Each structure stands twice: as structure tokens, then as C-alpha cells.
Amino acid sequence: MKKATLTISFCVCFILTWSQKKKTQGNEGEWMVQGTEKYRQARYEEAASAFSIILTRNDTNRLARYNAGLSFYKAGEKEKASAAFDNVIRGKVYDEMLFRSLYNKGVLEAEKKNWLNSIGCFRQALLMKPNDEDTRYNLEKALEELKKGVSKMKFPWTDAPKFGLAASAKN
């Protein structure tokens, strides 16, 4: 009798969990549609909010995370956008979404004049799509900016006196 009750309880819990998951997935689809519509209407903060709701229910949804990153970026919330793209990038799945996240992260880093980070992102993106002209162009621009910055820098050791070799202390 205990075994039958336990089995029935397990089945009921399983069915409730499964139906709740189905409800959540349905809601994810609705939120995705809403977010996409808001994004297309240039209502980026509302779009980011819709995609963020999906992520509170399913934080592994890479599409929602990427879309949230784009929405944050368009809304001017660069730090949130950067975090969203980082999260997609850390997923280590090599697909179009990863390429786009690397590219967009490179653009964000360039806007902040973080040339080394920007260059790294563009290089990783080019490893995935070696023939992408926009990525190659942005990489070249970031490299040029880095060179300009380095050539203007004053290094503390350039004005230091130059010493020869010390004589050995042989007595």
C-alpha cells in the first residue's frame, strides 16, 4: 500500500512539474514575441524587460540573453549589455549567436576605448567567420587606435639614466 501511494505521489508530482514547465515555456514564447515586437518598435527598455522576464524563469535561454543584450545596448545600458553578451560568450557553443555576441562586445569595448578587450573580441569573432568584412574592419580600426595610444604614452623608463655593466668585484 505504501509503495502504491508513493508511486501515485511521484506521478502526481511529475505531472504537476511537467505541466508547470510547459506553462513556463509557453510564457517564454509569449515574452519572446513581446520583446521582439517592442524591439522592432524601438522601445528598447520594454524589450529588455520582456527578455529579462524570460531569464528569471530560464537563465539558460541564450536567445533571450542575446536579445536582452541587444536591447540593453540600444537603450544605452552598456554595462548590462556587456554582461549579457559575456554570458552568451561563456556558453562556449560556436554558433551565429556567439559570433554576434563577440562582435557586439567588441563594439562596446571600442566605445569605452578598451582597445585590448575590443581587439580580443574581434579576433575571436574572426576565428569563427574569417571572411567577415565588418569584423575585420573594426579589428583594424581598434589596432590603429591602440597604436595611436601607445605612441603618445610616456614610459617612465625612457628618461631613466643608462648604466653600463658593473665591474666585477674581484680582489
Account of the 3D structure:
- By secondary structure, this protein is mainly α.
- Helices cover about 75% and strands about 0% of the residues.
- Helix 2 packs antiparallel against helix 3, helix 3 runs parallel beside helix 5 and helix 5 runs antiparallel to helix 6.
- It is elongated and about 55 Å long.
- The N and C termini lie far apart (about 100 Å).
Short note summarizing the structure:
The protein has helices at residues 2-40, 44-57, 62-74, 78-89, 96-111, 115-128, 133-152. By secondary structure, it is mainly α.
Mean pLDDT: 78
Strand content: under 5%
Distance between the termini: 99 Å
Which term fits the overall shape? elongated
Rg over C-alpha atoms, rounded to the nearest angstrom? 26 Å
The H/E string reads HHHHHHH
> Which class best fits the helix and strand makeup?
mainly alpha
Largest sheet: none
Features:
171 residues, mainly alpha, 75% helix, elongated
Task: Itemize the secondary structure elements and their pairings.
Blueprint: H1 2-40, H2 44-57, H3 62-74, H4 78-89, H5 96-111, H6 115-128, H7 133-152
